[in-house]
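Re: Re: token formats

Sure, here are both.
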Amino acid sequence: MQATKKSPTKVLPVEVGRPIRLDEQVLGIEREGGRIVVVPRRPDRPPERIDGHTIGLWRMEGDAPHAGEVHPDGDELLVLLSGRMSVRLELPGGDRHVEMGPGDALVVPKGVWHLISRVEPGLMINVTPGPNGDHRPLPDNR
């Protein structure tokens, strides 16, 4: 699969002086100018990609809605707040499986295919580069 560039149909300004619930909204930091915006969230899918980084809080109650993903624009940061996750990194020398527990952070290097699997339900913050990226669809027999 080839990385695809996507841009949100509409980003929204952040309301000054109002707390933002990352479990309900995804934030973006635009590369050009560094403006912070609200990025549309899509049910059971990653948020729209922007030219910059998206920041979200994910309730990991099931497995990923894809069979792996890649971010060619930069490193991705994963921070696990609660629960347990397993991350498979497809590195040139072979796959590496990383177990994450509460308080762990993991950097997924630019261009590395990876898959996050839930071991125990939990909360994860991701800081994901864009606008390009790709994912592998789930097999039809799932």
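Second one below.
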Amino acid sequence: MLAVLSKWYYQIFSEEESLILLLIIAVGLFLVVSMGDILTPFIISVIFAFLLQGLVVMLQRWGVPRPLALALTNLLFIGLILVALIVVAPLAWKQMVTLFSEFPRMVDDARQGLAYLQASHPDKISEELLVEWDETITTEISRLGQWMLSVSVAHLPNMLVVLMYLVLVPLLVFFMLLDKDKIFAWFSVFLPEERPLMRSVWLEMNDQMANYARGKAIEILVVGSVSYIAFAVLGLNYAALLGLLVGISVLIPYIGAAAVTIPVTLVAFFQWGWTTEFFYVFLVYSIIQFLDGNVLVPLLFSEAVNLHPIAIILAVLVFGGIWGLWGVFFAIPLATLIKSLLRAWPRGEAVTKVVELEG
């Protein structure tokens, strides 16, 4: 037993670089868990800097000087933030307020529908069951109202934090892009001079996650915009809000698409009922989801993030359960990191050395 444990220990922790890499990962996870709220603007800035770095490199390949490429990239970034704040956010907020005001009417329509079903099929749906459903609906609506009130009151002070982020994040992104080489050089001082394991993991992570992060940003923009245009053309209420939800849902593979189907279907049903318009909306929404999964995703990602669907769903469930929204957002990057570590971790040679020493 001790011999087996000894071989396992030397196989995994035989090199100094392995211990340092594990220490870096442990410290990083500890900081995210313990100081996630404080480090939120920094984490957001790292994500955006990672996304925008590809644009800087592309402009430089086209012959644009690096200072001008940085300036154009930051202007584009600030412009997208302004568009989101001035155009998208107010429209989505207005439609959300309208949806909440219409919610009691939708509930009354649902109750009338249940009453009609009970009257049409009294042998299958009893009055006791109808009363039980009605009480359940009333209880859940009351809980939803209390939750919405508590959330709105609790988040009022956060408006100042949001305003601070709007200034702090673009500033951090600018300096991260400007001094990327200096930051990497400073960080490399604390690493071993010979680091093949870290270099292997970094190259694989950088290649895969650059494609993943930029691909997800494009996918959100394309799917959200197409959904909004399709819903607006079909005359569906709250098209901007639902388009935004559909776009954001692509961050959570498989689960997001299934979850956002519920509000789209309910809004269409309460607006038109079992009519041709309802089935048109459902058909168009299904086509968008089909094209996203079978055309857009393979085109954008090209097998760069080669994870099995079971691994992706498991990562979303595990990391989402541990860190909430941040865990869901970073589920695939973290799963990719684990995969890269398992592939690049040294094995075999250390065990051979231990066997030779014991012999």
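Residues 277 and 283 are 10 Å apart (CA to CA). DSSP finds 15 helices and no strands in the chain.
- S.
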